[in-house]
Amino acid sequence: QVQLVESGGGLVQAGGSLRLSCAASGLTFSTYAMGWFRRAPGKEREFVAGISSSGDNTYYAGSVKGRFTISRDNAKNTVYLQMNSLKPEDTAVYYCAARRFSASRTWNDYDYWGQGTQVTVSS
To answer: What is the 3-state secondary structure of the chain?
Structure first.
């Protein structure tokens, strides 16, 4: 079965950096667009970043553009989210998701989800 396993979350001070990873198995990774979403306490799940199946196209939420970078390694079946200049408002559970072929900013367009990894940014 399909599994997406996130890692790399943790506690970091404001201004710091973290790199999240999402390892995929059970699917033909190179045919899936990937997305990162997050859910903060008391808030709706929101789109953070997306990347096409080839990696040629990337998409970002306005709140993270210029600070976060999404990338993928199709040989390793892994997608990454490099997060720099972190702010307390970035605190959330971060989820990766897979969608056949094309990326989307809409969470319910995605077919598979990971279990999430907690990111906490202290001020």
So the answer is: CCEEEEECCEEEECCCCEEEEEEEECCCHHHEEEEEEEECCCCCCEEEEEECCCCCCEEECCCCECCEEEEEECCCCEEEEEECCCCHHHCEEEEEEEEECCCCCCHHHCCEECCCEEEEEEC
Q: Per-residue pLDDT tens, the chain, 123 aa: give them.
A: 999 999 999 999 999 999 999 999 999 999 999 999 999 999 999 999 999 999 999 999 999 999 999 999 999 999 999 999 999 999 999 999 999 978 899 999 999 999 999 999 999
How far apart are alpha carbons 100 and 98 in whole angstroms?
7
Give the closest residue to 95 by CA, choosing from 119, 76, 73, 75.
119
Residue 27, token pair as written in the block: 């699917």
